[in-house]
Structures are given as structure tokens and as C-alpha cells.
Amino acid sequence: MLKKTILTSAIAIAVSSPAAFAEQRTAPVRDNGFSYTYGQLAYDRWDLDDGQDIDAITGEGAFALDEHLFLRGGLNFYDGDYRYGDLDGNQIYGGLGFHTPLQRGLDLVGSADIIYDDHDFDPGGSDDELGYELRAGVRHATTDKLELSGGLTYQDIYDGDLGVYGQGLVKVTPVVDLGARVIVGDDRDTFGVFGRYNF
């Protein structure tokens, strides 16, 4: 019940955000100066509803193609437990992202990724699947040193899952950031920390 309440509230906030911020617009903004070219290393903890508790290490990156489009990609290795035994595997993903300013310090951001998952479970064998993830949300320069992001995510690998995501990013130096991220979904809850280098 709590997860459904959080999910419903977050969806309402995400949908109403552009209208709420529209009143604060002044002059048109061409670029908010967010970096969409970076590499990062992350640790995530996945808690999945079918009894899986998984630790994942992920290398990720993005590359800006122009003022609106960027490429995304990553590779993760994961290991954990499921209801019958041990589970380990990897995922590789790649896709395209889009961003545009809504107002000063606020970007609308969307992305679409193709994901390939391959894992082994003991006892039982192995499995693999080709799926995808779609995201839509906002990225906000909350202070000079802090960025906050959030929105909706839909992932379909083995089963479909609708959720909300949130991320906080602290600027340690002009090119180095530290961050934390969370996803709350119907069938998955994840929490992670990461370090990012902006090119």
C-alpha cells in the first residue's frame, strides 16, 4: 500500500511539474549548462519482488551529440540471491536521450534504452532476455553545488514495471560529481551511489 501511495504521488508531481514551473519563466533559455557527456561508476542494490536481493556494479556513460540529443550506454555485473539459490549475471544497454530547457535551471529529459540481460542461477540453469527502458522527467539545478532529478520510468525485461526515479548530484569539483539514486516501482526497489567525471 505504501509503495502504491508513493508511486501515485510521484506520478502526480512529475505530471504537474511543467505547469507549476511555467509561471516562473522569464526570458527564453537556450542552454542550462548541464553536462550530458560523462563517464561514471556506480554501485546499486536491487530488491525485486520475486525474492531477489542483488548487488550490481555498473560502468555508464553519455555523449552529447548536439544541444538536445545524447547517446547513453552502460555495462553492469550483478550477483545476489533469489528464492531458490544464487544468481549472477550482467546487463549491457545503449540508447538515445533528449533534453530541452523548460526554464532557467530546469531541463526536461527523456531517454530510451535497449537492454540485454544474461544471467545464471544455481540451481536451475541460465536465461537471457532483450528488453527496454523508457524514462521521462526533469533535471534541476537546485543550488550551485546540488542537482536534483526525478520522473517516471518504465522497464520491460522479463516483465513490465512502472516506477518513479530520483537522483541527487553533488558537485565536488568542476568536473567531478558524487551522487545517489533511487527507483521505486511495482516490482523493483533500487538504491545506488555513484561517482561521475564530466568531460
Automatic annotation (TrEMBL):
Pfam families: OMP_b-brl. InterPro entries: Beta-barrel_OMP. Residues 11-159 form the Outer membrane protein beta-barrel domain. Residues 1-22 form the signal peptide. Keywords: Signal. This is Outer membrane protein beta-barrel domain-containing protein. It comes from Alcanivorax hongdengensis A-11-3. The lineage of its organism: Bacteria, Pseudomonadati, Pseudomonadota, Gammaproteobacteria, Oceanospirillales.
